[in-house]
């Protein structure tokens, strides 16, 4: 389902600069619920770190072949399965040693209850989830913010450390340089509770004029 795009764009459109962006780009198509469990989404995020989209998808597909359905389109291996797999089998998927350690840590954290299910996450605030999950190896604030926006359907996330968001805001406000994260946080607080949609428009503005395909995660 669309992430409350209609009400959000109406709210954001009260700002003249954003109204011009919305008119040019069109309706927000941010989908905030990809149907994944947090564990699955974080496992995919670890697999794709520092890789382009096609390479990340290929590696994650190989990992999914080791799951119960043995299909590149199936779910990734369950936590117990990840823990039982040897480093050699995981490296054969194209994973580095650091990513293997991060995945095994994530798997153990899911078994220990540190990584919540979707149902458990639904009663936690954004900041509670961020504070809990950034304690895991290989999981930073930005990764959790993407989980919040694209898996858990949270409407008010502003990933101020994201270069694309900062660059988009620079262009929207016609600034000479992208704002620092702290400044961007302060400047966008007045757009709560619709900052996920605002971030989506910032990404789209940052991509305008580029010949490369949009980022598959943030599009």
UniProtKB/TrEMBL annotation:
The keyword Magnesium does not apply. InterPro entries: Alkylbase_DNA_Glycosylase/TA, Alkylbase_DNA_glycsylse_CS, DNA_glycosylase, HhH-GPD_domain. Gene3D superfamilies: 1.10.1670.40, Hypothetical protein, domain 2 (1.10.340.30). CDD domains: ENDO3c. It catalyses: Hydrolysis of alkylated DNA, releasing 3-methyladenine, 3-methylguanine, 7-methylguanine and 7-methyladenine. It is an enzyme of class 3 (hydrolase). One of its GO terms (cellular component) is protein-DNA complex. GO terms for molecular function: alkylated DNA binding; DNA-3-methyladenine glycosylase activity; DNA-7-methylguanine glycosylase activity. GO terms for biological process: base-excision repair, AP site formation; DNA alkylation repair. SMART domains: ENDO3c (SM00478). Keywords: DNA damage, DNA repair, Glycosidase, Hydrolase. Its EC number is 3.2.2.21. Residues 47-207 form the HhH-GPD domain. Belongs to the alkylbase DNA glycosidase AlkA family. This is DNA-3-methyladenine glycosylase II. It comes from Gluconobacter oxydans (strain 621H) (Gluconobacter suboxydans). The lineage of its organism: Bacteria, Pseudomonadati, Pseudomonadota, Alphaproteobacteria, Acetobacterales.
């Amino acid at each position: 389902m669309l992430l409350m795009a209609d009400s959000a764009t109406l709210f954001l459109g009260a700002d003249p600069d954003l109204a011009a962006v919305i008119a040019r780009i069109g309706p927000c198509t941010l989908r905030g619920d990809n149907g994944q469990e947090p564990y699955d989404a974080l496992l995919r995020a670890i697999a794709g770190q520092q890789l382009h989209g096609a390479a990340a998808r290929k590696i994650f597909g190989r990992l999914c072949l080791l799951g119960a359905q043995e299909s590149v389109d199936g779910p990734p291996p369950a936590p117990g399965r990840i823990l039982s797999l040897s480093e050699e089998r995981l490296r054969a998927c194209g994973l580095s040693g650091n990513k293997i350690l991060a995945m095994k840590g994530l798997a153990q954290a899911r078994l220990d209850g540190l990584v919540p299910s979707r149902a458990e996450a639904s009663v936690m605030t954004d900041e509670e989830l961020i504070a809990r999950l950034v304690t895991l190896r290989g999981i930073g604030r930005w990764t959790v913010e993407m989980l919040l926006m694209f898996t858990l359907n949270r409407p008010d996330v502003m990933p101020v450390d994201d270069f694309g968001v900062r660059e988009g805001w620079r262009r929207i406000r016609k600034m000479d340089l992208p704002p620092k994260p702290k400044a961007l946080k302060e400047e966008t607080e007045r757009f709560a509770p619709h900052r996920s949609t605002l971030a989506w428009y910032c990404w789209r503005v940052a991509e305008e004029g580029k010949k490369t395909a949009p980022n598959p995660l943030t599009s």
